[in-house]
Amino acid sequence: MLVAVTGGAGFIGSHTVDRLLGAGHRVVVLDDFRTGRRANLAHHAGSERLDIIACDVSHGIFAALAPVTARHGPVERIVHLAAQVSVVHSVANPLVDMQINYGGTLHVLEYARATGVRKVVFASSAAVYGDVAIMPVGEDTPTRPVSPYGIDKLASELALDYYAAVHGVPTTTLRFFNVYGPRQDPSSPYSGVISIFADRAKAGRPLLIFGDGSQTRDFIYVGDVVRAIAAALEDGADRVVANVGSGGEIAVLELARSIVELCGGRSAIHHAPYRPGEILKSRAQVDRLHEALGIVAETSLLDGLRETLR
Predict the structure, then answer these.
(1) What pLDDT score does 276 carry?
(2) Active-site residue, 274 included
């Protein structure tokens, strides 16, 4: 089938493309390359089943996809990963976040409605929950996002449910917790904490923790996330909202110490004030992920860290 992957040159997107091409599908990547990298897809150079199109999804996708569908027929499935992914950036630029994250989702859904796309899989976020006192966080936990990023992800979820209920667009929403793994860009201060810590620890440079490090996160390896995306693309699980996490949690300070040890123990650990909009505790309840999609995280944090460092 022909699958469109928005943000397909990014960290999670490029791994998703690997999986889809490996399964024999035809893929069209839509990416504006602000954070995505062509190098993430360079190993597919020359593939007749991959098209890569420079496209800002928040400006619409009809024109970008027209040449591909004219050659290969209609897009059957869409994985919508394109987003502004920084909580900190959303706090400073809420209008930009709304235009990219909520606006981009509406453009994808309008395309799906108009052309009869058979499934839209949306990458949402644990940020929709905000600060939650009781762990683990289940999908029925009240959503109280504490950042524009979380607000726009939640608004996008509501839009998906509307398009499913009113227009019959099959949708599945995946609420990602903290995804890590190879190709995650450590050069951005807004990137995933594991990629930043690993990059600095390998060079023997100090690691910076915002706050005292007692805040916890549920880290899930990108390979397990891509398995969940692939399962969600299949028929069924319509209007399902599922957490995608490991079901465990680790304090950021403990994580930093583990990475320093794996890299030879040369890096100091420094602290800075908490950043606004960040949650303090996070751990996913993952029963629905298994029940609806048949997916359980298989990669331990230690194994995932070793693979990321390698």
Answers:
(1) 85
(2) no
